[in-house]
């Protein structure tokens, strides 16, 4: 790939920095290329990506240009690529660059970035909500992940399956020094999402919490954060092939989903969970998997005052939770809550768990050219933990 120096080194701080921080793994000459490598959704509606060259953008007012080195692959990317989330307002367009767990190095500042804590050379992250307005009611309420004017990375905005991306200097997430970039990436969506969901469950140390989909990208982090970070007694539910991973991540018990019927609205699996929790059921269930069956199974697993926290979003037509009947909700005082992606403070806090060595994301790295295969494996439920794309 041809690369150029975008100006004289002495002209400004940004250009000086371009000389100091290689744009990719190429050694010399060093600079920001006019074009860079990106994976685009070439046939939205199907599982397909292709790697192409796209123009490297210039940072606008208040923006930084980030040379991405890593991007996690999230199930939400799959939903965007395949147009299978009915909740999204518009179909994905061909040529969309997906991805929303990006980590890289700031290589250039746009105008209006002087005096910010974020400097050229800093590692920063890009989240699902890549930019917010800062002035709408959710933003003012500390729920910036719900910003009414938020920009979604990888859906109608260029995402992180590419080597360069823009981000707002006041909303990119600083990455702590001791956290390797490939481990930081999954924290920016999966990690912050499940951390926020665990907080929302109001489970206290010592409480039983069921993680549905405990071996997946979100679930394995929920299991680690819950058990090692928050002192919860985690019961992991997933396919039997993931038992070892789930237990290694700190689950006290593992429930093999394949050993229970799918068509009894959770009656059998709930009885089993009760046997593991002193007969009462779990204090909370966090459904990380995008499965309507998992949601139907969750409510019967709850004890009195228990709460179901919805995280995974099933694809296809929107289906009500089969067991969410007013009777049991009233008699057991159950609550059902949704939890989105957390706010910027949650992102700082969850990265700190990694920095302190309390949790360690289970990561496998792959090259950008393998992205389609990664999605195919994801579709078959064959991924353990998180796949992170190495963009160098
Ligand atoms: Zn995500
Ligand atoms: Zn806002």
Features:
11 helices; 392 residues; single chain; 7-stranded mixed β-sheet; binds zinc ion; zinc ion binding; Rossmann fold; disordered N terminus; 6-stranded parallel β-sheet; Quinone Oxidoreductase, Chain A, domain 1; alpha/beta
What characterizes the major β-sheet? 7 strands, mixed
The shape, in one word, is: globular
- What is the terminal-to-terminal distance? 12 Å
Order of helices and strands: HEEEHEEEEHEEEHEHEHEHEHEHEHEHE
Q: Count up the domains.
A: 2
Strand percentage: 15-25%
Radius of gyration: 21 Å
The CATH architecture category of the largest domain equals: Alpha-Beta Complex
Q: What's the CATH class label of the largest domain?
A: Alpha Beta
Bound molecules: zinc ion
Helical coverage, percent range: 25-40%
Class by SSE composition: alpha/beta
Stretches with pLDDT under 50, minimum 5 residues: 1-29
Summed over residues and divided by their number, the pLDDT gives a mean of: 90
- Number of helices in the DSSP assignment: 11
Number of strands: 18
**By CATH's scheme, which homologous superfamily of the largest domain applies?**
Medium-chain alcohol dehydrogenases, catalytic domain
CATH topology label of the largest domain: Quinone Oxidoreductase, Chain A, domain 1
GO molecular function, one term: alcohol dehydrogenase (NAD+) activity
InterPro entries: ADH-like_C, ADH-like_N, ADH_Zn_CS, ER, GroES-like_sf, NAD(P)-bd_dom_sf
Family: Belongs to the zinc-containing alcohol dehydrogenase family.
Organism: Penicillium egyptiacum
């Amino acid at each position: 790939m041809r690369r150029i120096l975008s100006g004289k080194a002495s002209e400004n701080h940004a250009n000086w920095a371009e000389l100091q921080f290689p744009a990719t793994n190429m050694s010399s000459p060093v600079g920001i290329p006019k074009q860079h490598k990106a994976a685009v959704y070439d046939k939205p509606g199907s599982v397909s990506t292709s790697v192409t060259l796209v123009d490297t953008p210039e940072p606008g007012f208040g923006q930084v240009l980030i040379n991405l080195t890593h991007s996690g692959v999230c199930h939400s990317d799959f939903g965007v690529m395949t147009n299978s989330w009915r909740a999204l307002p518009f179909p994905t367009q061909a040529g969309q660059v997906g991805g929303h767990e990006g980590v890289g190095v700031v290589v250039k500042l746009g105008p209006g970035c002087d005096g910010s804590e974020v400097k050229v050379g800093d590692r920063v992250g890009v989240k699902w909500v890549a930019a917010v307005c800062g002035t709408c009611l959710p933003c003012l309420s500390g729920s910036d992940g719900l910003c009414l004017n938020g920009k979604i990375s990888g859906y109608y905005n260029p995402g992180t399956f590419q080597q360069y991306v823009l981000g707002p200097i006041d909303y990119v997430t600083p990455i702590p020094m001791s956290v390797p970039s490939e481990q930081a990436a999954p924290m920016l969506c999966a990690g912050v999402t499940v951390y926020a969901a665990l907080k929302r469950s109001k489970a206290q140390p010592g409480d039983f919490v069921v993680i549905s989909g405990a071996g997946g990208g979100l679930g394995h982090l929920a299991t680690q954060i819950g058990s090692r970070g928050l002192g919860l007694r985690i019961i992991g539910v997933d396919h039997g092939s993931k038992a070892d991973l789930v237990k290694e991540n700190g689950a006290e018990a593992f429930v093999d989903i394949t050993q229970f019927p799918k068509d009894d609205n959770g009656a059998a699996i709930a009885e089993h969970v009760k046997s593991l929790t002193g007969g009462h059921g779990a204090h909370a269930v966090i459904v990380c998997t995008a499965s309507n069956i998992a949601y139907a199974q969750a409510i019967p697993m709850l004890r009195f005052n228990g709460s179901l926290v919805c995280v995974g979003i099933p694809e296809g037509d929107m289906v009500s939770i089969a067991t969410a009947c007013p009777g049991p909700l009233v008699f057991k005082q159950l609550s059902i809550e949704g939890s989105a992606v957390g706010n910027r403070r949650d992102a700082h806090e969850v990265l700190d768990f990694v920095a302190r060595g309390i949790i360690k994301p289970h990561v496998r790295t792959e090259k950008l050219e393998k992205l389609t295969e990664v999605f195919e494996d994801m579709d078959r439920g064959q991924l353990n933990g998180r796949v992170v794309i190495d963009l160098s």
